[in-house]
Automatic annotation (TrEMBL):
InterPro entries: Aliphatic_acid_kin_short-chain, Aliphatic_acid_kinase_CS, ATPase_NBD, Butyrate_kin. This is Probable butyrate kinase. Keywords: ATP-binding, Cytoplasm, Kinase, Nucleotide-binding, Transferase. The lineage of its organism: Bacteria, Bacillati, Bacillota, Clostridia, Peptostreptococcales. Its main location: cytoplasm. It is found in: Cytoplasm.
Length: 353
């Protein structure tokens, strides 16, 4: 059973082909700002990315006709529960209109459907960014105009938690976890017996990340927005792609920042210490969501490779629960496994309504 997996990101399109559970091909196709400059919206990029994907698998000597299904990372659609979804017209319409904002993952569904339709096989998305399992109290913000929405790295969160639950001899639904996905973007999530009942991330709250500001002080933010210094588009960029570490230190690369610290760069040390402190505070805060009944604290994502970060966070939060480090991400595997469960009839495929 051959499955093509597509994971579109802001600066890359990661693709893989799985034969059963075995990964037989993988590639990360890079896109420079220059490459993407001509496209007005994220959705407009799909023909360009589709061609690159097809060329790549062709170069990898994999025939498109041999694929049994295509699965993509799902983006910002309506709030939905976790699971495997068939890509349908309504989903594509919502993603095209960016009903919940622009994000590269909005391309996953259209790329999967387009390639799959050409060869008459099914297309799916799995645990999209817009999975929303929040409890009602998690949505109240303090201002009735603003409701907190779930905007998390759901796919990796659920995949990593499932794997750790298995290692612990149970199922995801048996445990309580607080997990932090530490990548270019960060999300910290409360997993209560298999449901993500609260969490921070996206472009709104939580710790700052290599490229995002995280939660900001409300009053100074209002003043900055109305200062006349920045347009709305520039403000959105400041909080989502050129904020955080990049704004303070001019790089989004944690390895470079570690080198700077080793060479005695004082500002880099201060920003790194604050980064660790904010992640640890966020994790501790969510201890209250679980009344302190936490089976594991999990650190995952590319930055979980950094001993400086994981060690620093661990020191501050291990009073709450044991800390497990799961570096990197399992998104490609999680997409393939979801599609496989669907093809084998082991999981009911959901319809996006
Ligand atoms: N071995 C490593 N040590 C420290 N930081 C790392 C390591 N590998 C990746 N990172 C950092 O992880 C971040 C990217 O996160 P990642 O989850 O790989 O990607 P993305 O979120 O962009 O998909 C970057 O800041 C990068 O410097
Ligand atoms: C917060 C979930 C979606 C997201 O921001 O993903 P990236 O960090 O991959 O951009």
């Amino acid at each position: 059973m051959k499955i093509l997996v597509i994971n579109p990101g802001g600066t890359s399109t990661k693709i893989a082909v799985f034969d059963g559970e075995k990964k037989i091909f993988k590639k990360s196709i890079k896109h420079t700002a220059e490459d993407l400059k001509e496209f007005k919206t994220v959705f407009d990029e799909y023909e360009y990315r589709k061609k690159l994907i097809l060329d790549s698998i062709n170069e990898g000597n994999i025939s498109v006709d041999s694929l049994n299904c295509v699965v993509g990372r799902g983006g910002l659609m309506k709030p939905i529960e976790g699971g495997v979804y068939r890509v349908n017209k309504r989903m594509l319409e919502d993603l095209k209109n960016a009903i919940n904002g622009e994000h590269a993952s909005n391309l996953g569904a259209i790329l999967a459907k387009n390639i799959a339709d050409d060869i008459n096989v099914p297309s799916f998305v799995v645990d999209p960014v817009s999975v929303d399992e929040f409890q009602d109290i998690s949505r109240i913000t303090g201002l009735s105009d603003i409701e907190k929405a779930s905007w998390l790295h759901s796919l990796n969160h659920k995949a990593v938690c499932r794997k750790i639950a298995e290692k612990m001899g149970g199922r995801y639904e048996d445990f309580n976890f607080i997990a932090a996905h530490l990548g270019s973007g960060i999300s910290v999530v409360v997993h209560n017996k298999g449901r993500m009942i609260d969490g921070s991330g996206g472009r709104s709250d939580g710790p700052f990340s290599p490229e995002r500001s995280g939660g900001l002080l409300v009053y100074p933010l209002i003043k900055l927005c109305y200062s006349g210094k920045y347009t709305c588009k520039e403000m959105v960029a400041k909080v989502s792609t050129i904020g955080g570490m990049y704004d303070y230190l001019g790089t989004k690369d944690i390895m470079k920042i570690e080198e700077m610290i080793e060479k005695g760069h004082r500002k880099a040390k201060l920003v790194m210490d604050a980064f660790i402190y904010q992640i640890a505070k966020e994790i501790s805060m969510y201890g209250a969501s679980l009344y302190g009944e936490i089976d594991k604290i999990i650190l995952t994502g590319g930055i979980a490779n950094s001993k400086m970060v994981t060690g620093g966070v661990q020191k501050r939060v291990e009073y709450l629960a044991p800390v497990e480090i799961a570096p990197g991400e399992m998104e490609m595997e999680a997409l393939a496994l979801g599609a496989m469960r669907a093809l084998k009839g082991e999981e009911v495929v959901k319809e996006y309504l």
